[in-house]
Amino acid sequence: MSGNIYFWIIYAIIIFSAIIALEASSLLWAAVSFVVLLSEISLVYFGLNMPVLGGVQLAIYAGGVTILVLFAIMMIGESYKKPPGKAVRAIVLSFSLLIVGVILSFLSAIDTFPFKTYSTELLGTVFVEKYSFFTLVLGFIVAAILYMANAIITKKREAEKDASRS
Amino acid sequence: MLLEADVHAYLFLSFSLLAVGVYGLLSRKSVIRMLFAVEMIINAANINFVIFSAQRNIDGEVFTFFTIGLAALEAAVGLAIVIVFYKRFGEVIPSKIKNLRW
Asked: Which of A6-20, A44-58, A134-148, B58-72 is the least confident region?
C-alpha cells in the first residue's frame, strides 16, 4: 500500500471532510464539507488521467447535488439534534467493514498492472458504440432530475401560499 | 502522473469512505445526513470502478458516468421526499417515517 505525499494528503482531506459532513453541528457547514469531499474525489479522477469524469463529478455532484441539498436545508431549516450517546455499534461495524475490505483487497487484487490513459475519443466511441442505449436512459435521468428540481420549487411556492393564507 | 499510488492504496481510500458512510447511515438521525452517507457509499463504489478501469479497460469509467447520473437522481428524489414530508408533518425524523399514505 504505497502512494506519494499528494495521494495521502488527498486521502486525509477526503476522510476528514466526510467525518465533518456527518458530525458538524450546523447542517450548512456539513454541506460545505460535503462539497469539499466531492471536489477532492474529482481531484482523484483528475489525478488518474480521467479529466472528463472529473469534470462530470464536479458539475453534477459538487454542483448540482450540492445546490439541491443547500436548497433543502434552506427550506426545512436546522431541525437537527445530535443523537444521545455514542453509536458504538455503528463504529464497530464500520471499522470491521474497513478491516475486512482491506484484507479482501490484498487477497483479491494482488496483480497490480500499470495505470492506463484513455483518450476522450475512445471514451466517446465506447459510449456511442457499446452503451448507446444506456446513454439514452441517462438523458432521461437528467430530464427527471430537472423535473424533480422543478417539483421542489413548486412545493416551496405552495408552502408560501399556505403560509400567506393562514 | 500527479497521484502516484498503487491499487491497494486506492482500495484503502475506497473502503475508508465506505466505512465512514456506513457509520453515518447507521448512527445519524437526520435524513439529510443519511443522504450524505449514501452519497459517500456511492462515491466509494465509484472509486472502485475507476481504479479497476484504470488498470484493465474503459468500461468501468463509463459505468461511473451512469452511476453519477443515478446518484444525482436519487439525491433529487430523496430531497423531494424530505421536503414533502416536512411540509406535511412539520419535522423530518427518520424513526417517525413509517408510511407515506395520504
From this structure: A134-148
Contact A2 B50 (CB under 8 A): no
Question: How far apart (Å, rounded) are the C-alpha atoms in residues B46 and B64?
Answer: 6
Classify residue B1: in a domain, yes or no: no
Would you tell me the crossing angle of helices B31-55 and A5-23 to the nearest 10 degrees? 160
> Scanning every residue of chain A, which has its alpha carbon at the shortest distance from the alpha carbon of B80?
A152
- With vertex at residue A17, the alpha carbon angle to CA A46 and CA A94, rounded to the nearest 5 degrees, is 105
The beta strand positions in A19-87, using DSSP E, are none
The parent domain of residue B80 ranges over 7-94
d(CA B51, CA B36): 22
Number of residues written out for chain B: 102
ipTM computed for the complex: 0.88
Position B102 in a domain: no
Chain B residues with CB inside 8 Å of A119's CB? none
Q: Which fold has domain A1-84?
A: Four Helix Bundle (Hemerythrin (Met), subunit A) (1.20.120)
Query: Which residue, B84, B46, B93, is CA-closest to A153?
Result: B84
Instruction: Over range A133-162, report the average pLDDT.
Output: 72
Closest chain B CA to residue A131: B62
Interchain CB contact of B90 with A (< 8 Å): no
Whether B100 maps to a domain, the answer reads no
Does residue B102 register a pLDDT over 50? no
Whether B24 and chain A come into contact, CB under 8 Å, resolves to yes
Q: How far apart are CA A118 and CA A137, in angstroms?
A: 24
Calculate the CA A142 to chain-centre distance.
Answer: 16
Q: Provide the residue type at A77 as one letter.
A: G
Q: What's the CATH number where B56 sits?
A: 1.10.287.3510
For B8, the closest chain A residue by CA position comes to: A1
